[in-house]
Amino acid sequence: MKRLLLFACLATLVTAGECRAGFLDELTQRAAPLLQGSALDDATVVKGLKEALATGTERAVNAVAKPDGYFGNQLVKILLPEKIRTAADVLGTLGYRKQVDEFVLSMNRAAEKAAPKAAGLFGDAVRQMTFDDAKKILNGGDRAATTFLEGKTRSKLFEEFKPVIAKSMSEVGTTRAYQEMIGKYEALPLAALAGGTSLDLDTYVTDKALDGLFTMLGQEEKKIRTNPAARTTELLKTVFGSK
Questions:
Q1: Is 194 in the same domain as 149?
Q2: Helical H runs in 16-96?
Q3: Contacts by 221-225 with C-beta closer than 8 Å and gap 24+?
Q4: Displacement of CA 241 from its chain's centroid (Å)
Q5: Same domain, 112 and 133
Q6: Measured between alpha carbons, how far is 125 from 129 in angstroms, rounded to an integer?
Q7: Which residues lie below 8 Å from residue 47, measured CB to CB, with a gap of 6+?
Q8: Which domain holds residue 104?
Q9: Which end of the chain is more exposed for a tag (fewer CB within 10 A), N or C?
Q10: Is it the case that residue 213 has pLDDT exceeding 80?
């Protein structure tokens, strides 16, 4: 019905010779949401967005929850904490480069081990998504779904990730290696002039692991929105192809 009324108005204006370019542009912009809303019913929008989120989160989690998922991906690789990079650089020049590199690797391995924990929490957030949530996501920017999920899950993910990361780093000696590395550095002359080197390593790695996870999720969301080849089901093609 909305389509018929809009087309009738346009036809009348064209016939009457009253169509100015600026007016038509404005009318087209105002009509677009109505046309889109009539093209997809509420159930299809919600179902399509849930499928997109399920697809995107699965791909993102799988991408990081494997050997080198973090370490081998420069986009999400967990690097040395900024406040101890000076210490690491100094130690590297003194023959401790291997230990520094192993320390970086162990942080990333801990994140890779924790990543599967995200699947369940993402699934809960997707199931609880409302129609209003779906419309905002559908009409939002390239990271609208990622922002939605991060807001719903980040604090819970932190609670799930941190114990796994702490245990993993303890088992493989990351925490011990960090303490030894800092101990060697702080024993050097003039090291105190570079500032403090203490930090909560478990919290640092957990935060970086989550940053990387949501970065990968954002990448997957953008693919679904902009790349037709990434819409692997008819429902995804219907919902995102209508935008």
A1: yes
A2: 21-39, 42-64, 85-91
A3: 221/52, 221/56, 221/142, 221/143, 221/144, 221/145, 221/146, 222/142, 222/143, 224/52, 224/55, 224/56, 225/142
A4: 22
A5: yes
A6: 6
A7: 235
A8: 42-241
A9: N
A10: yes
pLDDT digits (tens, 9 = 90+) for 165-206: 999 988 877 777 777 776 766 666 544 444 545 578 899 999
Residues in the chain: 243
SS3 category, 17:
coil
Cβ-based neighbour number of residue 127 at 10 Å:
10
Query: 7 and 60 share a domain?
Result: no
Which residues, at least 6 apart from 61, have a Cβ–Cβ distance to it below 8 Å? 115, 116, 118, 119, 122, 213
Is the confidence at residue 63, as pLDDT, over 90? yes
Q: Could you tell me if 99 and 28 lie in one domain?
A: no
For 19, 23, 59, 146, the CA distances from 26, given in Å and listed in that order, are 11, 5, 40, 31
**CA angle, 12 then 24 then 138, to 5°:** 115
CB 121 within 8 A of CB 156: yes
Considering the domain architecture, whether residues 28 and 86 belong to the same structural domain is answered as no
Number of domains composing the chain: 2
What tokens appear for 5 in the block?
């009324």
Question: Is 70 exceeded by the pLDDT of residue 12?
Answer: no
Same domain, yes or no, for 81 and 19?
Answer: no
**Confidence tier at 64 by pLDDT (50, 70, 90):** very high
